[in-house]
Amino acid sequence: MTFTVGHYLAERLTQIGLKHHFAVAGDYNLVLLDQLIEHGGTQQIYSCNELNCSFSAEGYARSNGAACAIVTFSVGAISAMNGIGGAYAENLPVILVSGAPNTNDHGSGHVLHHTIGLTDYSYQREMVRHVTVAAEIIVSAENAPAQIDHVIRTALREKKPAYLEIACNIAGAPCVKPGPISTLFSSQPVDDTSLNAALEASLSFLEKREKVVILIGNKLKSAGALKEAVALAERLGCAVTVMSAAKSLFSEAHPQFRGVYWGEVSSEGTEKIVEGADGVITLGPVWNDYASVGWRKLVRGENVIEVNPESVTVDNQQFAGIPLKAFVSALAEKAPSKPASATDAYKPLSIAPAAPDAKLTNDELTRQINGLIDGNTTLFAETGDSWFNATRMNLPDGTRVESEMQWGHIGWSVPSVFGSAVAAPERRHVLMVGDGSFQLTAQEVAQMIRYEVPVIIFLINNYGYVIEIKIHDGPYNYIQNWNYAKLMEAFNGGTGAEDGSLRGGQALGLTASTGAELKAAIKEAQKHTRGPTLIECRLDRADCTKELVEWGKQVAKANSRKPQA
Ligand SMILES: C/C(NCc1cnc(C)nc1N)=C(/S)[C@H](O)COP(=O)(O)OP(=O)(O)O
Ligand SMILES: [Mg+2]
């Protein structure tokens, strides 16, 4: 077999630990797709469209560490850019690969199909540059290895997406084989002088503090420092809280865990713990308008040691060139060792079971899902009241929660949970998604059927965009209702095999309008393993968390700030 440019890419993807890649066929990428199939190192998984393809890759990266999506030029890649923007916002190394025009067309004055009708095809790379950390156009086999290595190396180092465009007549061109993978793993250098200065400043900060609290943000995960955060917490013996986007990054079974901090909509008691501390160490925080409840609840300033992916800020001084992981492990060694002194209590969620035949409520729904999840569950929470329901749950040790609180693209969760389940089939995947969000990417349930991925989908039907209704209501927040459970029959068409037989799994579609119906549906879902189960949970539109109502008010205020004079 001649080793080709496509084989080089396939070999590198396999070497960095991918077992799958996601793809949508198009005439600019068919030869490239053949090369990956021929190489065989990663299984080719197909998506219904390129938006879902990029989100499935994003979900794969959440569980596997990195991912790859392969699409066709322009009509495919521009759709995929939305999911790549999400991967950028959520710090996930996804490699977007686009098939591209034949090299003989460049500069030929040819107008090509799928393009915007101009003879300059470079617009795609210009667009994607804004949502990637590296972007290369491959038009020769000689340069391909260095370009592919540069794109993968940068994505892995920065934990951000990157882009490769491969001309359709180059994908199958003969190419050298890659060397050892070690050249692709370049870690961030540590500036020792800056690290020691930051440690000194932090130790003197801690000496002057009575009551220290740790607040964890979601960039702790992309910094790969979860264990180091536990070591620091146990050294300091202090209370540990998490931001909502970091839910599950610190075990809630740990004796020092003290809830989710989210301003007024924190876990009960947690707001007082964080705001009552005289010193807070924030690890990988993301302070956006939603996380700060409309720019009002930011934990920053003179009583804070803010530890970001490459810098530490303490006592009004910023120390650069320090990877978060290096700082946290060094501070865990040098900080004064105190026995666990976290006393203040926070009040974990407790919801009394509803009467079995009473109309299903959001509380009863949350209580039963909380009862379903265990240490082997990855729970996806879509943008919507699902954020608040997941945030208030009590997580068993080992449960993982995935949300997309920075990008917040509704519908992200359906393809993303599929991608995560492909990456980690040994974990139980559970999805909470609202009716509005589901309508954007519903067709990806068909891939869960095709690949027999047993996701349990709680389709929370509150008949509209309730988050938006709470922020600012209008006719635009009301949507056509679907018969969501019945929709599963439409997807159960079977996978046309070469011999004409219909293979693949089956989706189960169930509805629940009372607690008893929900309980029975969950039991059935747990037994159904040959594909997804969608349980349409019917709620009153007015039935949402009190946290959403409070938060929505504050976000609406922030959105309506008058222009500065
Ligand atoms: C329309 C929109 N956001 C605006 C929006 C619009 N388009 C995209 C791609 N992403 C977005 N976040 C949002 S959060 C809806 O309330 C979601 O509705 P649903 O899934 O039904 O959840 P809730 O009812 O719990 O709010
Ligand atoms: Mg809704």
Automatic annotation (TrEMBL):
Catalytic activity: a 2-oxocarboxylate + H(+) = an aldehyde + CO2
GO molecular function: magnesium ion binding; pyruvate decarboxylase activity; thiamine pyrophosphate binding
Residues that span the membrane, as ranges: none
One cellular component (GO) term of this entry: cytosol
Cofactor(s) it depends on: Mg(2+); thiamine diphosphate
Record keyword Lyase present: yes
Cofactor note: Binds 1 Mg(2+) per subunit.
GO terms of biological process kind: aromatic amino acid family catabolic process to alcohol via Ehrlich pathway
Keywords: Decarboxylase, Lyase, Magnesium, Metal-binding, Thiamine pyrophosphate
Domain Thiamine pyrophosphate enzyme TPP-binding residue range list: 403-537
Domain of life: Bacteria
Ligand binding (Mg(2+)): 435, 462, 464
Domain Thiamine pyrophosphate enzyme central: residue ranges: 201-330
Enzyme Commission number(s) of this protein: 4.1.1.1
Domain Thiamine pyrophosphate enzyme N-terminal TPP-binding: 4-113
Family to which this protein belongs: Belongs to the TPP enzyme family.
PANTHER family in the record: PYRUVATE DECARBOXYLASE, PYRUVATE DECARBOXYLASE C186.09-RELATED
Name of the protein described by the UniProt record: pyruvate decarboxylase
Species annotation: Neokomagataea tanensis
